Amino acid sequence: MNIPERKISETLLEFGEPLLGLLDDPTPEEFRAMLNIVIAVWNTHGVSTAKEGGRGKYLEELARFRQQMADDGAPAVLLNGLDALSRRREADYADDPRCVGEWDLMPDGEGRYRLRCEARLPG
Fold it and tell me: Which pLDDT does position 10 carry in this prediction?
């Protein structure tokens, strides 16, 4: 198993850009809510790959989550961002076996926040 040396927090922020980039000067709560979605997509793909070879119930649950968001009237830009994340995880980050455990946003002392994540291996 090849575990990247790059911090998972850096990887997640890059990975999450299709959704995180939709936020314009977000509050910490808004940024945290979008990070919850980014991390859920990341972890779902990671667990699915580790336990099911990249298919099965975990990705079906992600598809149901997306459908529920659509049924609840989520904006198309958010749904498209969610789809982009799934494609991005499979295309650009499929070799990264890590999942995210506990995480938090920490003030950086300059009015912004930095992401602190715990990396875990699924299974």
Answer: 95
